[in-house]
Structure formats: structure tokens, C-alpha cells
Amino acid sequence: MIRLARSRLAMRAPLQPLPVLPFSRVWPMQGVQRFLFLAREFAQLTKPGILRLLVITQFCTMLVAAGGVPELWTAIWATLGTVLICGSANTINMVWDQDIDQLMGRTAHRPLVVGTIKPAHALIFSGVLGLSAVMILTFLVNPLAALMGIAGHAYYAVLYTMWLKRSTPQNIVIGGAAGAFPVLIGWAAVTGELSITPWLIFAIVFFWTPPHFWALALYKDVEYGKANVPMMPNVRGHYTTKLQMLVYMLLLLTTTLALGLTGDVGLIYLIAAVILGAGFTYCCIRVAFDKTDHWAKRTFAFSIIYLGLLFAAMSVDSLQTHHFTERHYLAAIERDADRMRAEQDIDEIRRLHNATEAPVWTATP
Ligand code: HEM
Ligand SMILES: CC(C)=CCC/C(C)=C/CC/C(C)=C/COP(=O)(O)OP(=O)(O)O
């Protein structure tokens, strides 16, 4: 493990001297201005843009799991836990990747690169977020939701960030599964278990990731090359990347339709899946025949709209239709049984109470 970490460290590019003295921009600020500036910089460590969509997938999955509106406090705690655990994982990613982030225009403005936040402070921040998330998920949601959070964190922060990203062009295919863990947190939070439906939703995010990311990597290939990150377009070329995007698109389309067979989603979702899938497939086909960056850029932008709308359609469907599958039926029986057991307990206490002359709680030994 130590040898592995050392070899990963050896692959890291040396940090370049920074153009401005790190804290020279922060120290002259006073009071509220300084607080707001630092709060914004810490928030940047969590990658808020990506975080938003991750949380949308988790939240919408809760609605599907509940077949409508989930229990309010479970929903609030599970969402907060997801925000915190994903924010923590993204912060670790930024700490680890400072050396390559400084080499790419897209990432060169990040707080750890420009020096407005020190790595040690970022690590403490990540630890606080991560620990709070695990506490919230374990004690206020349920242990399975917490386990999915921890697994997603380890998958992204360790497996993807510290190993796969710099090792193989399959990095985002294997590592992409990390981004699908919020879905499992959402489902586990509501049901306390993981059936076939959450794994299908997991597969949707998993198969969506390659066309999402490779579209971007196609027009950022020079940057990734400079940073020596082996992304698919750099290693295998644009032709292979575009072909593989089409393959994953096809798998994505199949999985979105398969979800329709579970009974947990209905017609509204299916119509959206077909229309959005047709749009995304069209984009990927245009990318395949495009010699410029034009369609790659449009496809990356559309990928984000695609996933957001697909999950929105799942939610609308669940809120509208109130699907009542075998799972919901069994859950309802379980709830009724719990209520009857509780009523029986109360009857038993009353009977014991009436059978004794003195109230049971004042009886002397
Ligand atoms: C291994 C998997 C993934 C990789 C490598 C990846 C990579 C990226 C990259 C490099 C960007 C550009 C960020 C920037 O402009 O600085 C991006 C943007 C984005 N990604 Fe992904 N992504 C992955 C998975 C996901 C997942 C699972 C989601 C959500 C479900 C997601 C949602 C987004 C969103 C919403 C943006 C736009 C962010 C913004 O405009 O601020 N990504 N992604
Ligand atoms: C439950 C749980 C904690 C799950 C983890 C979910 C998670 C944080 C997914 C992140 C996906 C993502 C931003 C990949 C890009 O990383 P990158 O390093 O390739 O992107 P960059 O170059 O912009 O830093």
C-alpha cells in the first residue's frame, strides 16, 4: 500500500511556483468581507456545479423509492448527508490533484492552486464534512445509507482520484461508478434495502458518465495531454473515443428503457426517456461525424440537461402516479403489522394494569 502510494506520488508533476503570494490576497481583507471570501473559496472545494446534479439524482431516487413523497425528515437528513459526503470527496480530489489542476486552464483558478486555501485546511474541512455526513446518515437516516456514502467516498477519493485517473484510459468508466453512489444513498434512505430498481438507476448514471465526460475530454484533450492524464481521446484517439461514446449511449438507452419494466416508474418517465435518449443519441452521432469541437461541446452541455431532466421525469412520474408495486404493498403490510403489534402491547399493559390493585409502576417489591 505504501509502495503504491509512493509510485502514485512519483507520477505527480512538481508544483509550479505561484504567480501571486497565496495569502497576500486574503490577509488585507477584514471581517465580513474576509469571511465571505473564504466561505466562497471553501465552497469551491466541494465542486458545487457537479454536486448539484449528484444531489438531484439522490433526491429524485428517494421520490421513486417512496412512490411519491418520502418522509420529510428522512429526506432532509439524507440530502444533507449526501451533500456533505460528496463535498468531502470532491475536496480530497482537489487536494490530491493540485499538481495537475495547475496545468489546465479549466482548473488553474481552483483555491488550492491559487493558494487562497492551504491543503491542510482543506483536509480538515473534508474531514469535518465527511464525519458529519457519516454521523447524520448513520444515526438520522440508516446504516445502509451511511455505508453507501462511505463506499462512494472511498471509490471516488481513493480508487478514482489516487489510482485510476492517472493510470488508465478506462479511468472514468471504472471510476465513473462513484458518481452513481448518491442514487444508492437515496434509495437506501427510504427503503432500508437495495432491490433491482436502484441498481438499474445506478447503471443509468454509470453508462451516462462516458458520453458525458468524453464529450468534454474530446475538446480538452490538449490540456489533459499537458497534464499527462491518460484520458481516452489522448491515449486511444478521437475515433475510438467517439465509437465508445456510441456504445455507452446504446447501453444507457437500453438501461433507461429497462427501468420502465420494474413498475417503479410509469408512462411519463418512459416518454421522457425515449425523447431525451433520442436527443442524446443524436448528439453522439453528430459528434462521431464532426471534425471540429462544435458537437462535442454541445453534447457535453446536453449530457447535463439530459440527466437532470431524466431524473426530474422520474420524480414527476412518482408524484403523479403513486405506483403501488409489490414492494410498496409489502411495506404497507409491514407498517400495519407494526401498528397492530403496538396496539396489542398497549392492550396488554392495560390488562396488567387493571389486574393489579395498585398501578404497576407504584407496586412495592
Ligand atoms: C468519473 C466521472 C466523471 C468525470 C470524470 C466528470 C468530469 C467532469 C468535468 C471534468 C467537468 C467540467 C468541470 C469544469 O467545468 O470545471 C464536469 C462537469 C460537470 N459534471 Fe461531470 N464528471 C463525472 C461524473 C459526473 C456525475 C456522476 C455527475 C452528476 C450526476 C456530473 C455532473 C456534472 C455537472 C453538473 C457538470 C457541470 C458543472 C458546472 O457547470 O459547474 N459529473 N464533469
Ligand atoms: C457518495 C459519494 C461520496 C460519491 C462520490 C460522488 C462524486 C463526488 C463524484 C464526482 C464525479 C466527478 C466530479 C468526477 C470528476 O473528477 P475529476 O478529478 O476527473 O475532475 P476535475 O478534473 O474537474 O477535478
Automatic annotation (TrEMBL):
Give one Pfam hit by family name: UbiA
- An example Gene Ontology molecular-function term: protoheme IX farnesyltransferase activity
* Reactions this protein catalyses: heme b + (2E,6E)-farnesyl diphosphate + H2O = Fe(II)-heme o + diphosphate
Q: Report the pathway entry.
A: Porphyrin-containing compound metabolism; heme O biosynthesis; heme O from protoheme: step 1/1
Sequence intervals crossing the membrane: 50-69, 75-96, 120-140, 146-164, 171-190, 196-219, 239-261, 267-288, 300-319
Just give the chief location class.
Answer: membrane
Q: What CDD domains has UniProt attached to this entry?
A: PT_UbiA_Cox10
The protein's UniProt keywords, in alphabetical order, are: Cell membrane, Heme biosynthesis, Membrane, Transferase, Transmembrane, Transmembrane helix
Its Gene Ontology cellular component terms are: plasma membrane
Q: Identify its membrane topology class.
A: Multi-pass membrane protein
Q: Which domain of life is it from?
A: Bacteria
Q: By its UniProt entry, which PANTHER family does this protein fall under?
A: 4-HYDROXYBENZOATE SOLANESYLTRANSFERASE (PTHR43448:SF7), PROTOHEME IX FARNESYLTRANSFERASE, MITOCHONDRIAL (PTHR43448)
Q: What miscellaneous comment appears in this entry?
A: Carbon 2 of the heme B porphyrin ring is defined according to the Fischer nomenclature.
State the family it belongs to: Belongs to the UbiA prenyltransferase family. Protoheme IX farnesyltransferase subfamily.
Show the HAMAP family listed in the entry: CyoE_CtaB
Function, as annotated: Converts heme B (protoheme IX) to heme O by substitution of the vinyl group on carbon 2 of heme B porphyrin ring with a hydroxyethyl farnesyl side group.
Q: Can you name this protein? A: Protoheme IX farnesyltransferase
**The organism of origin for this protein:** Lujinxingia litoralis
